[in-house]
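Friendly challenge for the regulars: who can give me the structure tokens for this chain first? No prize, just bragging rights.
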Amino acid sequence: MSERQRANHQLSVPLRLGTRGSRLAMAQSGHVADALTARTGRPVELVEVITAGDQSTAPVHRLGVGVFVSALRDALLAGEIDFAVHSYKDLPTAMPAGLHIAAVPPRQDPRDALVTRDGKGLAELAPGANVGTGALRRIAQLHALGMQLTVTPIRGNVDSRLARVLGPEADLDAIVLARAGLARLDRTDLITETLDPMLMLPAPAQGALAVECRADDPDMVELLATLDHAPSRVAVIAERAMLATLEAGCSAPVAAYAVVAEGEPTGSGAEGDVVQEIYLRGAVISPDGNRDIRLSRTGTPADAAEIGKALAAELLDLGADSILGPHVHDGPGTQQFGSTE
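First reply, four minutes later:
Bragging rights claimed.
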């Protein structure tokens, strides 16, 4: 076989993309696979990897750190797959040795979505209405609204959660889940209301995907970099820097949302350079909603990590550590928000 034939053969061999087996994980991995093939011509095959989180029925906040990603990372390091796609908010903030986030594709809308049984919006729900959700962050913020809602912790994939409010045996008045998951499954028609971040601040990195490969595979790093979306990466860097600086444990309701936008021109007239600006909002909320610290900070995208760290420091100065409780010192990067589902 000639060098050219060998190269052509290598290019025709499908790249192995590791993914969880849920419908949502398969859908978002499929989107990444299609985008990579479209940009590079390389075929991609999906390889299902079962994670500890998929095998457990325990509440998300009790499962521990990285339960939805550790098996994928083990398969990657073992060479069983070539790259993996994660819901970015599932990743612990501490990066393991030997792996590299090669791309953050364009982020889906990171806001939370409300789906109700009778089409009522959040403000129309009656006191005592039973609202289901899986994240302590959402539970805490629902309590903080002061609407006397009954909040029920729920787990499961998107379809099983929707069945709790829309199915023939529905037992909830409403559910709150990530809008991004519904969008990737083409189910946005079921959304009653997309929640304003002023009411329900998203989880750090919600709606974003992380495309990960081995750090010692420069060809794969270069290939996957074609999928990277700089504004999405910058926003996630700021949000997760705040999270890592807080050193939040797995039971801490922490929220963050960064927006990258064009600022004012720095020069005069049409020739002035337009400088991008990043606007980061962060919050720490007690599980019962009685204590709620919210702050914001702005800066340039180049300083995204420093903006996140500085906002976390301000939150701590105002007493966030007392809300985070004893888990705050579990170690850097231990926050686990659970699956996007």
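The CA atoms of residues 138 and 278 lie 24 Å apart. The chain is about 30% helix and 25% strand. Your move, everyone else.
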